[in-house]
Every structure is written in structure tokens, then in C-alpha cells.
Design a protein that fits this description.
alpha+beta; D-amino Acid Aminotransferase, Chain A, domain 1; D-amino Acid Aminotransferase, Chain A, domain 2; 2 domains; 4-stranded antiparallel sheet; 8 helices; binds 4'-deoxy-4'-aminopyridoxal-5'-phosphate; L-valine-2-oxoglutarate transaminase activity; L-leucine-2-oxoglutarate transaminase activity; Class-IV_PLP-Dep_Aminotrnsfr; BCAT-like_C
Length: 268
């Protein structure tokens, strides 16, 4: 990374993380759609056309011999002498693609046990729907969670409602209904979240897209988070209070299985 890369100096860039399952990219089209949207919102050009980028992703996965894991891509506004306005004339956006293997047994084990979450104030900017590399509030919230022995932090807005996790979308289940905050500019519209919305419709489950408070979450029957890395991950405690008796519940288990079946179909 160049010292005058604008991603490094200004967090002037965006990223995507895509799951690799059985050597294939899961929901690649949706991830590339979101990458293009993030770039458009920040007026950064695509570093190469979509077909070429798709080819690069596959090559990085193949050359690193990744069967299960993640591919990370980052696009910044490029390298230019440090100055706040966009470089003029425009420079070539900088692309970094990496892939890493993850032992699939790790996620399975974590899902069997479930994770603990803490809560922290959501003090991010107002455009968190853009997947920028500016993640300092998320980093601090997650570190705070870790210091409290938890695996994720749920961010809470000024009204006491949970927006999302530091790197996941947040869900609760009450009386058979799945509740997650509506996707506006206040959360990242997770690809896994979108897929779960489709999966639960196919499973005949009820969805409520609306804000929910920390108090409501603590009284939920089940809770979980979604992301490309965690897929569907049961939450078994919130700020030390047990959810569903402190064990992963039946609906979350069912959804995780249904999601896996979907991603096996969607991996191309
Ligand atoms: N919210 C935030 C803040 C995230 O960083 C992520 C992970 N990139 C998500 C939600 C989940 O998004 P996805 O399902 O696309 O991984």
C-alpha cells in the first residue's frame, strides 16, 4: 500500500467481503452490485470492468487454493499527493484483492455454542449504508465487546434501538416473527440479510422490518446475527442476559441450514 493512498490517509475507499464455500464465491453478483453502488455514492470509478474484476477474484481464490474462507476486495480513490479534495486530474482507483482460508469447523463450533453480544452507542456517521473502510467506531465497539468476553457489539441509536452489529446485521425472534431493522441509510444492507429475507419467505416464516430496542431484544425468544463471515450465527446473551435459556434456538438452527442450502445453489 502506497503511503499516499487515499484509503490509508483519509479512509477514502470501500470494500467487500465475499464468502468462499467449496471453492466458489457465494452471492458474487450481489457483492459486486453493492461494490458498484458504494463506489457510485463516493464518486469513485470502478478500477476495472466487472467482468475483469470477477476474473481477478476467481484467480486470487484459485492461486491461494482457498476452498473455504473469504475473499476481500478494497477500492480506494487512488494514490495522490495528500490533499482533501479529490485528485485533479483524476487518478486510477487502487484495487487490492486478498483471499484467506478459514477452517469451516470453526464456524460450526461457534454456531453450536452461540455468541455473546454487548451493546454500545452507535456513534458512526449518517451514511453507514456505504461500505467504506472507515470502520473506527466499529473497531472500538468490537474491542469493548471483546474486553467484556463477548464476540460482537450491537450498536444502539439515540432512541435506544439496535441498528446493527459492528460487522453484522442484528435480528431477534419473538412469537415466530423475525425482526430486523429496516434497511435505510442507518445500516449496511447486508447481502446475508437480503438472502435470509428471501429464505424465510420461502420457509413460510414471518418478517417484521422495524426498529427494536435493547429491552425488547433481551426479552426475545431467540436472536442472531448475519454476515458473509458468520452466515447465520445464534446470539445467546445480550449484555450478560441469557436469550432463550442461553442456547441456540430452533428457528435460528433451521435458518442456518436453509441458508447453507441456498448458498450451495448460489455459489458459482
Ligand atoms: N453490517 C456491517 C456494519 C458490516 O460490516 C457487515 C459485514 N460486511 C454486515 C452488516 C453484514 O453484511 P454482509 O451480510 O453483506 O456480510
Amino acid at each position: 500500500m502506497h503511503v499516499e493512498d487515499r484509503g490509508y490517509q483519509f479512509s477514502d475507499g470501500v470494500y467487500e467481503v465475499c464468502e468462499i464455500h467449496q471453492g466458489r464465491l457465494v452471492d458474487e453478483t450481489r457483492h459486486l452490485d453493492r461494490l458498484e453502488r458504494s463506489l457510485r455514492e463516493l464518486k469513485i470509478r470502478m478500477p476495472m470492468d466487472r467482468k475483469a474484476l470477477s476474473h481477478v477474484l476467481r484467480e486470487v481464490v484459485r492461486r491461494n487454493r482457498v476452498r473455504h474462507g473469504l475473499v476481500y476486495m478494497q477500492v480506494t480513490r487512488g494514490v495522490s499527493r495528500r490533499d482533501h479534495p479529490f485528485p485533479s486530474p483524476e487518478v486510477q482507483p487502487a484495487l487490492v484483492v486478498t483471499a484467506k482460508s478459514i477452517d469451516p469447523a470453526k464456524g460450526v463450533k461457534m454456531a453450536e455454542k452461540g455468541i455473546a453480544v454487548t451493546t454500545a452507542p452507535d456513534n458512526r456517521w449518517e451514511r453507514v449504508d456505504i461500505k467504506t473502510v472507515g470502520l473506527l467506531p466499529n473497531v472500538l465497539a468490537r474491542q469493548d465487546a471483546q474486553e467484556k468476553g463477548a464476540q460482537e457489539a450491537w450498536l444502539v441509536d439515540a432512541d435506544g434501538n439496535v441498528t446493527e452489529g459492528s460487522s453484522t446485521n442484528a435480528w431477534i425472534i419473538k412469537d415466530g416473527a423475525l425482526i430486523t431493522r429496516h434497511a435505510d441509510r442507518g445500516i449496511l444492507r447486508g447481502i446475508t440479510r437480503t438472502v435470509v429475507v428471501e429464505v424465510l419467505a420461502a420457509e413460510g416464516l414471518r418478517l417484521e422490518e422495524r426498529p427494536f430496542s435493547v429491552e425488547e431484544a433481551k426479552k426475545a425468544d431467540e436472536a442472531f446475527v448475519t454476515s458473509a463471515t458468520k452466515i447465520v450465527m445464534p446470539v445467546v446473551s445480550i449484555d450478560g442476559q441469557a436469550i432463550g435459556g442461553g442456547r441456540p434456538g430452533p428457528l435460528v438452527k433451521r435458518l442456518r441450514g436453509a441458508f447453507r442450502r441456498h448458498s450451495e445453489l448460489a455459489a458459482a
